[in-house]
Amino acid sequence: MNKLIKALNKKIISDRRKLKIYKILDTLISISIAAFNLSIIIVAIITLITLIRYKNRHSEIANQISQNSFWTLVALTSLIIIAFIITIVLAIYKYNSRQNEYKKIYNTLRYLQIKHDAGEINDEKLNEFVNKLWIKATTKTKLTVSKIIKDQITSGGK
Prior knowledge:
By secondary structure, this protein is mainly alpha-helical. The protein is built from 4 helices and no strands. The chain has one domain.
């Protein structure tokens, strides 16, 4: 029994190290993506302001072709801004959902430890549950947003 507990403790220590590394990498990647998105949104806003100023200054010399180009660029810039906002909302949702799942797994591990310490479950059951939780924690879950969108489109929004 002591060997199993020592093995589990070693696994916990190595998993904590891996989790710290993954958390740091995830944070760095998230920060770089956020910086990239912020730079895109700043460029889009500057472009939109520049286009509106140009339109106001040169309205008397603008012909039909420049009008179409102007409104196309305004639409493109607006879509970039909207895409940025949607990306931020999805990133927040993803972060929150993952954090909640990790908290549930952590609470389950604490509960299993208490049950094991009280003698309600044996070492084999504990190991089985820990392995199941490990699999659940390491597998990435897909969000079913696309399925929900497809259902809404096919059902006509009912």
